[in-house]
Amino acid sequence: MSAADLLLIVPAAFGGVAWGILGGALPGISPSITMALLLPLTYGMNPTAAIVMLAATYVGAEYGGSIPAILIRTPGTNAAAATVVDGYAMKEQGRAGEALGISLYSGFVGGLFGLAVVLLLAQPLSTVALAFTPQAYFALGVLGLSIITSVARESLLKGLMAGVLGLMIATVGTDPVTGLNRFTFGSPELLSGIPPILVMVGLFAVGELLAESGEVGWRQVKPERARIRLPGPALWRRIALPQAIGSTIGAFEGMMPGGGGAVSSFLAYNEARRWSRRKDEFGRGSPEGIAAPEAANNTVACTALVPILSLGIPSSNSSAVLLGGFLLHGLIPGPMLFVSHSNVVDGLFVGLFAANIAMVIVGYVMLGPCIWLVSRPRPYLMAFIYALVVSGVYAIETSLFHVGVALVFGVVGYGLRYFEVPLLPMVLGVVLGFMVESNYRRALVLSGGDHMTFLQDPVSAGFLIAATLFLLGSTAHHVFRGRRRPQVGAPA
Amino acid sequence: MNRDLAFGVAGAVIAVGYYGLAVRIPASALADAVGPQGLPIAYASVLLLLSVILTARSVRRSESPRPVHAARVAGMLAIGAVYLALVPWLGYTATLAALILAVTWYLGGIVNRTIVVVAVSGALVFWLLFVRLLGIPHPAGVWARLF
């Protein structure tokens, strides 16, 4: 890696972290929305710097979420919800600076641990991919789609429907084999299909904007004063175990479909309490109660990269947006990325390391601006987010049509939120739809229409078996959980 | 109508509409065994099946109504639509200032000198970022002909 590369990567990491902290600190603006808002702005950038910036945004947003959680008892992100409990209790005791310092330091530790896991796992997993055929790519797409059953959470049916709708959206444009136009309605803008980035910006950013506009009675936040105080040696020793617990849980959850920061934070909080010698302090301002969830959610921000880099499959909303960043720059994440664009992967690893360092520095500097931003009137914030969306989406291909498409997907996103349908299955369908269809049909052309070809190819067979097991396991889990759920009015 | 039922019905309508369009995709001499209609028809069928199951499961369930805020959402979209219509004529900076002003007012901000200053200076910051710094050729509108 040259000095010129570093000159691109390090500022991108710092910029991404700063953007992420600001976005994460705004209640209602999740890491995925923060990343989706940044996505169009990265279009003209160097691909490595763009990917680093997006990944750094994820890192920054996970820390940023803890700022309002500690200061105003409002988590900026879902993952920071577990931090509210002890963080706000510490603030009430006049220890806000200490709580922010623990959050920052634990996020740093978790982030570095997560990076080590990515370095260890991503490349070995991707080496299998060098033997990939169209059959294997199709099966990989099916495996990616099978995680819908896991990310659907409450409603498997609605998740599957959203996934199929995503696959339908992916069929718009020119047919991959015959070159015929499908579902374009004579519009030349639709010939190359609907870019996944428009779907993501629409579903996540515009959809949230519309949903927020329907909320009445926004609470005006009173600005709070605080100064970060990093933990001393005695506190370091005390929070080492909860950090280790949080990092370990975060490492697994980040790689699991639908795991994400929120699940890992609560799991880490619970386990840290279980293993603590001072259980009674939890809920009343325990530093361990901040260290565990914050280490966990920052580990997730790194380990979520493992399934993207090795297989090209996003495991959460944020990693789906990151995948959008790769696609925007013509990079196909997954098996071949390590071979065809190893410089981007190396740059990303260096960038993630820089992002974790940046988090400590920028986190310190950005506290004041974050507090200022959080206390701005919401109508102004929403107006500026709207302005950013229309400007950013236009910037992708200087197309007003694309801005319109993003607004349409905003309505879809609002509708899905209203019907309580998870967004990620639709994104998975859009992102994987073309890969599934084109490789399915290519494989059939190569095999003379014989479907057994998918089982004769060992990699393809392995993925299809894994997908089947995953589908059966997740479905059984949904059915079992549905039966165990207590009925209203049932005797205790 | 509960939300699952409504989503189920909507899904069925989309599936039928999409199926109708899929079967009209013309045949091609270059077509493979599956053809350009193959997977779209399969997707429509699966969506219809899932929609019917969801509808059947939720038809007897009752649910307390939840506000849709349709008017508020439609207003936000209308602001976006007006922006798209005006930007080729008024240019990026002026239309963006109008958008910021309109959204702030629409979401409860009081129209005074501050709101106008914030909208205009915000639009100038966006112009500096996108047009000057990133070099994105946003529409200049009638101003390009005037100056």
General description of the model:
The complex is a heterodimer of chains A (492) and B (147). Chain A is mostly helical and 492 residues long. Chain A has helices at residues 3-25, 31-38, 47-64, 66-71, 81-92, 96-127, 134-146, 148-151, 156-170, 196-213, 233-255, 260-275, 288-303, 305-311, 317-328, 337-340, 342-374, 378-397, 400-418, 424-446, 453-456, 458-484; strands at residues 173-174, 181-182. Chain A has one domain. Helix content of chain A is 72%, strand content 1%. Chain A has a two-stranded antiparallel ribbon with strand order 1-2. In chain A, β1 and β2 form a beta hairpin. Chain A starts with a helix and ends in an 8-residue tail after the last helix. With 147 residues, chain B is mainly alpha-helical. Chain B is built from 6 helices and no strands. In chain B, α3 runs antiparallel to α4. The longest helix of chain B is centred in the first third of the chain and has 24 residues, at 35-58. At the A-B interface, α9, α10, α18, α19 and α20 of A face α1, α2, α3, α4 and α5 of B.
Features of the shown structure:
heterodimer; A: 492 residues; mainly alpha; two-stranded antiparallel sheet; 2 strands; 1% strand; disordered C terminus; B: 147 residues; 0% strand; flat
Tell me what portion of residues of chain B adopts beta-strand conformation. Answer: under 5%
What is the helical fraction of chain B, as a range of percent? Answer: over 70%
Distinct helical segment count of chain A: 22
Separation of termini of chain B? 57 Å
Count of individual domains of chain B: 2
Main sheet record of chain A: 2 strands, antiparallel
Which of globular, elongated, flat, extended, rod-shaped describes the shape of chain A?
Answer: globular
Q: Tell me the series of helices and strands of chain B, N- to C-terminal.
A: HHHHHH
- Cα-atom Rg of chain B, whole angstroms? 24 Å
Sequence of strands across the biggest β-sheet of chain A:
1-2
Return the average pLDDT of chain B rounded to an integer.
Answer: 88
How are helices and strands ordered from N to C of chain A?
A: HHHHHHHHHEEHHHHHHHHHHHHH
Q: What number of structural domains do the residues of chain A give?
A: 1
Q: Roughly what fraction of the amino acids of chain A lie in strands?
A: under 5%
Q: Spans of chain A of 5+ residues with little confidence (pLDDT < 50)?
A: 486-492
Number of strands of chain A: 2
Characterize the largest beta sheet of chain B: strand count, sense, and whether it forms a barrel: none
Largest interface: A-B, 56 and 73 residues
Shape of chain B: flat
Look at the helices and sheets of chain B and give the structural class. Answer: mainly alpha
Helix and strand content put the structural class of chain A at mainly alpha
